[in-house]
Write a structure and sequence with these properties.
Blueprint: E1 16-18, E2 25-27, E3 29-32, H1 43-55, E4 60-62, H2 73-86, E5 94-99, H3 114-128, E6 133-138, H4 147-159, E7 163-169, H5 173-185, E8 190-194, H6 203-206, H7 209-216, E9 219-223, H8 244-247, H9 258-273, H10 278-286, E10 292-297, H11 302-309, H12 319-328
Parallel strand pairs: 3-4, 3-10, 4-5, 5-6, 6-7, 7-8, 8-9, 9-10
Antiparallel strand pairs: 1-2
Helix pairs in contact: 1-2, 2-3, 3-4, 4-5, 9-12
The structure holds NADP nicotinamide-adenine-dinucleotide phosphate.
């Protein structure tokens, strides 16, 4: 039995942005359940974070068969919260899932084949306890599978009523352009591309993805805009207990070296001079680009979430501030590229 009643004012301050040339608006902040949403973490905290996100107008929850840990656990958890608390609001939710990154040793538990994508989608729908997802993604490019087969699977997902829209993630611009063309010809336009983008990862600026999104008419949902926490003040002095760099396979403590700290401290100072935190500056920075529909954030507490969504309360970044950010926001800092 749910004790949850959503906040009446959940849409009052929330900003929504149009995804490319589609008819779909997405919240400026989307929430992802990549890490710390498995059973190793407090159920009550995970539930509080999800419900707080919804109260803040974050109507888009990003998942994948891989998320947890372990694999599939984040979707099983989200399915429980959906059943208990959010089911009456399903029409107000954008639920995304992805398939194709390895989740087991079987050749059918990885890659972008028709078999792998559609079997994973069926499993995700069961885990989430919903008849359809709003966005279904090919999680990563798979050079060994013909693009036509991957596109055919995405189109089938829509035609079977299991997904409303389709997306791709981590694809290079040349293959993204090809996929966009194939999908358009099949009558299922590419809604979004999900790349990593942050002050420390400039690839979408350098490889033409931002321009491609504008030209092809798809939106960008950019993930890890805080570089997994490196673009916050949490690692300036030390690595705190419970931080991702202590317990995640995806963020090594070794990247928190003197070079990183100097750059993060300089960025932190730019933020402080604007009266905001480094996290807020970093989120405002990705959302300054009109091609970016949504910043896809994570959080391990309600306090982080509350803090981060205030990023848009500050004045736009000036040219001088952007230039200063470029000086210290060196591409590749702290990240595996
Ligand atoms: N398509 C893909 O291949 C792909 C890959 C990666 C991610 N994603 C998606 O993107 C989502 C977000 O990725 P991400 O979690 O790396 O995003 P992020 O926003 O860069 O990092 C979030 C993490 O930073 C820390 N943090 C957040 N706010 C903070 C604050 N104010 N002060 C201090 N620390 C703070 C928290 O970690 P701790 O408190 O635990 O340290 C939090 O979990 C994922 O959940 C997933 O949906 C997609």
């Amino acid at each position: 039995m749910s004790t949850y009643t959503p906040a009446d004012d959940r849409y009052d301050a929330a900003e929504f942005r149009r995804a490319g040339h589609s008819g779909l608006d997405l919240p400026a902040f989307s929430f992802g359940l990549w890490q710390k949403f498995g059973p190793g973490y407090s159920y009550d905290t995970r539930r509080e974070i999800v419900l707080r996100a919804f109260d803040l107008g974050i109507a888009h929850f990003d998942n994948a068969d891989r998320y947890g840990p372990p694999h599939r656990a984040a979707q099983e958890f989200f399915g429980q919260v959906l059943a208990r608390d959010l089911k009456p609001y399903r029409d107000e939710l954008i639920l995304s899932t992805k398939a194709g990154n390895p989740i087991g040793k079987s050749p059918y538990l990885k890659g972008a084949s028709r078999k792998s994508l559609l079997a994973s989608l069926d499993h995700s729908l069961r885990d989430l306890g919903t008849d359809y997802v709003d966005i279904f993604y090919s999680h990563s490019p798979d050079e060994s599978t013909p693009l036509e087969e991957t596109v055919g699977a995405l189109v089938s997902a829509v035609q079977q009523g299991k997904a409303l829209y389709v997306g791709i993630s981590n694809y290079q611009p040349d293959r993204a352009r090809e996929i966009a063309g194939l999908l358009r010809r099949a009558g299922v336009p590419l809604l979004v591309h999900q790349p990593r983008y942050s002050i420390f990862d400039r690839r979408p600026e350098r490889n033409g993805l931002l321009e491609l999104a504008a030209a092809e008419g798809f939106g960008l949902i950019v993930y890890s805009p805080l570089a997994q926490g490196l673009l916050t003040d949490k690692y300036l002095a030390d690595i705190p207990d419970g931080a991702r760099a202590r317990d995640s396979a995806f963020l090594s403590p070794e990247v928190i070296d003197d070079t990183y700290r100097q750059r993060a401290a300089a960025l932190n100072k730019i933020a402080a001079d604007r009266g905001q935190s480094l996290a807020q500056l970093a989120l405002q920075w990705v959302l300054r680009r009109p091609e970016v529909t949504s910043a896809l954030i994570g959080a391990s507490s309600v306090a982080q979430l509350d803090h981060n969504v205030r990023a848009l309360d500050f004045p736009p970044l000036t040219e001088a501030e952007l230039a200063a950010i470029d000086e210290h926001g060196v591409h590749g800092t702290g990240l595996a590229l």
